[in-house]
Amino acid sequence: MAKHNELGKKGEELAVQFLQKNNYKILDRNWRFKKAEVDIIAQKDAVLAIVEVKTRSSDYFGNPQDFVNQKKIKLLVEAVNEYVISKDLNIEVRFDIISILKNKNNFDIEHLEDAFLHF
């Protein structure tokens, strides 16, 4: 597996652990619809959190969350609409980004709630 793929998988694992420590229930991981893949679908209280995980080994080219573009957002919204309909859910939906930056042997994790409101 390529190093960037390994880093991405590690980032997703760290994101799941972070969410669980913060009382989120993980409902699905890597859920796919058409061309979209939703990294993590989690629930906390009455909110369905759609979580895009971005992991980078440095911030030389920008912060990890800067790599979520309009095309990705559009695909995620379409996929989540399908998810909510297919599961017959009546719940508030929020789009989050978990930004993970590798810092030597540590990882800095930042959870941006309602992240798409800032685009």
Automatic annotation (TrEMBL):
Coiled coil: none annotated. Pfam families: UPF0102. One of its GO terms (molecular function) is nucleic acid binding. Belongs to the UPF0102 family. This is UPF0102 protein Lupro_09190. It comes from Lutibacter profundi.
